[in-house]
Amino acid sequence: MAQLAFHQAAIAGSNIVFTAADAAGDTVLPDLDGGVLVRNADTVAKTVTVVVPGNTRFGQPDPDVAITVAAGETRLIGPLPQGLADPEDRLVHLTYSNVTALTVAAVSI
């Protein structure tokens, strides 16, 4: 599991460097001005899951957020509020259905 570092947007432009998605998942600091770009260069769709910690007021686990990234698509997932952070490590956790040809980059504006 890798922690993604944010690429900061700049008026002159920013070079966004994508890294391979980690089969064990990735983490990122919560950021209301940030998100994760997910690029799927494969020929099949992938599912990216934002793991939501905690329980509902009825004691059931809060549902995770599953995002489908179609083949050849790049999706921006965010913003990433503090409520999505795991209370133990204070990071937002992402998992992937498959990491073949899947790259990610954290961006903040």
What does the average pLDDT come to?
Answer: 96
Strand order of the largest sheet: 1-4-9-6-7
| SSE ordering | EEEEEEEEEE
Number of strands: 10
User: Spans with pLDDT under 50 lasting ≥5 residues?
Assistant: none
Roughly how many Å apart are the termini? Answer: 25 Å
Provide the helix percentage.
under 10%
Structural class: mainly beta
Shape: globular
Concise overview:
With 109 residues, the chain is mainly β. The protein has strands spanning 2-4, 6-8, 19-20, 26-28, 34-40, 46-51, 65-69, 74-77, 92-96, 102-108. The chain has no helices and ten strands.
Q: How would you describe the overall organization of this protein?
A:
With 109 residues, the chain is mainly beta. It is built from no helices and 10 strands. It has strands at residues 2-4, 6-8, 19-20, 26-28, 34-40, 46-51, 65-69, 74-77, 92-96, 102-108. The strands form 2 sheets. The chain has a 5-stranded mixed sheet with strand order 1-4-9-6-7, with no helix packed on it. Strands 2, 3, 5, 8 and 10 form a 5-stranded mixed sheet that branches. It is globular, with a radius of gyration of 14 Å. The chain starts with a strand and ends with a strand.
What are the salient characteristics of this protein?
109 residues; mainly beta; 5-stranded mixed β-sheet; 41% strand; globular
